[in-house]
């Protein structure tokens, strides 16, 4: 049975965009809402939001491929790229490479896609790795296969076009990418761009990560500014469904199921982005209201809680957590926590050894994402 790129109509994918018309309108409405929020925050909060979103996308996109990056190091690299104050001695090589890719995509969102741009992204992602052909399409003569090894046997999930075909395939892809803005919905083009690129699989490694930043580029070009959502965060949480959905495209050009799945992913990512934006705004409000009213221990613990992001401490902050973070006694921790509750910085739940403390933020922006 032929692969999708071997079918006579390749790369003419078959789809019905009317199935995602309501999702498209929802996406655009949420874009307008986010823009309204962003107009009412200061430069510092906006910069924090950009760093948080870019680092979240980088962390989760790498995690999908089985690579784990250090969050603080990645954020430090992104901050340095934007000339923001960063923690010293945090940057490492792999986080620095990912940061360069993310920032490049962010800053060049409105530029047409080119082969040179793709090569630059690939080079930024794999610079100094001797086992990778950095900054160029694959050239190996053996088949480019995605293989699963389980229980002593192997299964070929997909085989991409041979390396010799890649330059022509990518030239056609780039032409399609740059000439279809007016012909497709934003969500539809993002979904198609991803499956189209992954079907060609033009690089020896890094196709998933580059394919996902192409989604960000499509969305950003569609709305006219950087989209600032972390699609990879949702894809990592739904990795099994993600792989299953894209595998269904391997031998067909009919991709309605894929477009529906991917549109939902984008909407979920957009919702999480709004939650994060609200979280950062409420964080700024709370810290401003408490300015000058906290002792150094309380301030250290609150900042540590905020650093955990939307999900917070798993199971809430305990008195033992406070003692470790603040490096203080149990009696002092008890007084400090009671004072933070009195000042409405924290909310207390439970009793005795089950007592836990939570940031006092609106419930709608504090889900476990």
From TrEMBL:
All copies of domain Fido, residue ranges: 113-264
Pfam families: DUF4172, Fic
Transmembrane annotation, as ranges: none
Protein name, per record: Fic/DOC family
Domain of life: Bacteria
């Amino acid at each position: 049975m032929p692969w999708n790129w071997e079918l006579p109509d390749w790369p003419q994918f078959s789809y019905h965009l009317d199935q995602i018309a309501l999702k498209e309108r929802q996406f655009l409405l949420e874009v307008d809402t986010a823009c309204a929020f962003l107009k009412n925050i200061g430069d510092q909060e906006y910069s924090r939001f950009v760093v948080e979103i870019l680092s979240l996308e980088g962390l989760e996109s790498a995690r999908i491929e089985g690579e784990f990056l250090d969050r603080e190091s990645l954020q430090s690299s992104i901050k340095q790229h934007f000339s923001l104050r960063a923690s010293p001695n945090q940057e490492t090589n792999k986080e620095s490479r990912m940061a360069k890719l993310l920032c490049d995509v962010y800053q060049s969102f409105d530029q047409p896609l080119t082969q040179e741009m793709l090569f630059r992204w690939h080079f930024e992602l794999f610079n100094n790795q001797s086992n990778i052909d950095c900054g160029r399409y694959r050239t190996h003569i053996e088949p480019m296969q995605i293989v699963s090894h389980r229980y002593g046997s192997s299964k070929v999930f997909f085989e991409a076009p041979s390396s010799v075909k890649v330059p022509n395939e990518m030239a056609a892809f780039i032409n399609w990418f740059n000439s279809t803005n007016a012909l497709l919905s934003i969500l539809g083009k993002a979904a198609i761009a991803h499956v189209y690129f992954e079907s060609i699989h033009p690089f020896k490694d890094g196709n998933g990560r580059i394919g996902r930043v192409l989604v960000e580029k499509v969305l950003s070009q569609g709305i006219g500014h950087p989209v600032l959502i972390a699609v990879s965060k949702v894809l990592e949480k739904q990795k099994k469904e993600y792989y299953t959905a894209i595998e269904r495209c391997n031998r067909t050009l009919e991709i309605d199921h894929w477009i529906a799945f991917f549109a939902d992913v984008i909407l979920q990512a957009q919702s999480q982005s709004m939650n994060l934006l609200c979280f950062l705004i409420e964080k700024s409000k709370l810290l401003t209201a408490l300015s000058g009213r906290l002792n150094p221990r309380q301030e250290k613990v609150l900042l540590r809680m905020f650093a955990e992001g939307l999900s917070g401490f798993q199971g809430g902050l305990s008195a033992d957590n406070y003692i470790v973070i603040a490096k203080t006694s149990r009696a002092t921790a008890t007084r400090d926590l009671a004072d933070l509750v009195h000042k409405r910085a924290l909310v207390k739940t439970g009793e005795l050894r089950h007592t836990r403390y939570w940031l006092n933020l609106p419930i709608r922006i504090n889900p476990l994402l």
